[in-house]
Amino acid sequence: xxxxxxxxxxxxxxxxxxxxxxxxxxxxxxxxxxxxxxxxxxxxxxxxxxxxxxxxxxxxxxxxxxxxxxxxxxxxxxxxxxxxxxxxxxxxxxxxxxxxxxxxxxxxxxxxxxxxxxxxxxxxxxxxxxxxxxxxxxxxxxxxxxxxxxxxxxxxxxxxxxxxxxxxxxxxxxxxxxxxxxxxxxxxxxxxxxxxxxxxxxxxxxxxxxxxxxxxxxxxxxxxxxxxxxxxxxxxxxxxxxxxxxxxxxxxxxxxxxxxxxxxxxxxxxxxxxxxxxxxxxxxxxxxxxxxxxxxxxxxxxxxxxxxxxxxxxxxxxxxxxxxxxxxxxxxxxxxxxxxxxxxxxxxxxxxxxxxxxxxxxxxxxxxxxxxxxxxxxxxxxxxxxxxxxxxxxxxxxxxxxxxxxxxxxxxxxxxxxxxxxxxxxxxxxxxxxxxxxxxxxxxxxxxxxxxxxxxxx
Length: 458
Fold this sequence. Notes:
- Helices cover 72% and strands 0% of the residues.
- It has helices at residues 7-27, 30-38, 51-76, 79-85, 97-110, 116-120, 122-132, 135-142, 148-154, 157-166, 173-178, 182-193, 199-212, 225-243, 246-251, 253-259, 266-291, 293-317, 325-334, 347-364, 366-375, 381-410, 413-433, 442-451.
- The model is unreliable at 90-95, 139-145 and 323-341 (pLDDT under 50).
- It is a multi-pass membrane protein.
């Protein structure tokens, strides 16, 4: 209990997750900027139907490049230095994933098993706060208008704070032991757990686990289920997470609302969805160490399935004329003409999107990141996590690149029905492949994959 109440651990986690604030900030940046640049008077800045998909998807290519960098930096520089290194390219927002992956691994390796689920959800909470505090959302509520250039500058403030705080934080004890720095690792664990705790016992367990994995991974070892099973599970979860359509929906949130829901202004809709997302991630953080990972994944995928199916069926069966009712009302009011009655059926897209984001944030958002850092073996954690992230963001790039062309060609219902099929697959994948890791140390999880004895995870 004294280990759980040590405030230094939470300070180290807070310092690390500040980078995720900028990541969430950057993720939703295209949503309000695309409409602004589509109407920009300058031909050099104006977006058309060919350049708008690239503007919305190029961020994911940068994230994939960040994942490649992580494969090297995570094991050679260490978790803390990799996070700090991410501050260098963050001004372009194209290498944010250099930060996100080592943050998740760093938190997983320094956390006590009793709070690892809660702390593992903190990167997602900060990413949601970053998107929610995005100036257009705040500006909409305050009645202000901010230039898109200044939005890019605002994203750098949390990065500088992150670098400053991390200078005073310790590195991961597991990484230090893998580098042969035993005294420094013991001091790091003492700092994280507290001097009046039984940190020496935990240190010996970590040391024994690291000793068994002292060598680098060889190609022959990839045939070992101890390595390939957790890698396939982590990669499959990251692939299905992106294939469920979350990045497309977040990037093109305002264009989607303009085609469907017109009850509120698109800026208000985005802010409302952000609040729902934040509440859901907070619920996941509180319940993850009590209810477990798998039950939240089941609930999450179920909610996402119903939401995508509802959205697709609504767009398919509700005539497009209904979607213009409120928009016409707004124009009529501004011209002092008689207003048409509000058609509340147009609330369905907003509610479906809110429930989709809520479902995602309860499980398949934070838990896929957490499980990736939990189940990957220490000797392959840096390289394997980088590979999973590269595959994840290349999938996101493909979806965001083709989302608008598919919508323009086949209609908006086709992507949502496709996402519904994928989320149904998420439920099957969770039941067949994902282990429960609640309350288990990283060493116990590794022992499960090494021996196949499920008793380690019961």
